[in-house]
Amino acid sequence: MGARLGAREVLQRCLPTGQASVGPLTRHFLPRTSLASMGTDATLEKHLAAHPDVLEQLNLARDAAWSVTDNRLLGLCEQRIREILGVAESTQLANWYADASLSKAEKACLAFTEEYMIDVASLSDESAAAVRDELGDQALVDFVSSLLVIEQRQRIALTWATVFGDTK
Asked: Regarding predicted confidence, which is higher, 147 or 41?
């Protein structure tokens, strides 16, 4: 099976060509906006109406993310991202680690997602290994790439909703 990938190696594989390193991301607590009710897609469509080519590329990235990662798994992680950013309508996954209905793979991916959201530069090799052990090497890379797309879409929409005061 080849060399096992650590967290830093996985993140480096997912970076755009030419980007040299993974910098720290800090968690910012922004006031709750109407993003949860308006929806990420609607927010992006509204603010990119004059730039359909950019919207198309963002949507292609979204579609690719959902096509390479298990939809239930990615949906759980998207929900957790929204909860961490404060834009989810509920906090149903706040105690995911105690939820017996979640699989080992789902729990590994949710743990990875939380670390990723809080400080991507400090992702542990143990978290990456747990996901890799459940999904495999290529699926780990696909998962991290998908997580990046989902997280960026949420942050873009949250920023625009906050800056422009979007309402339902």
From this structure: 147
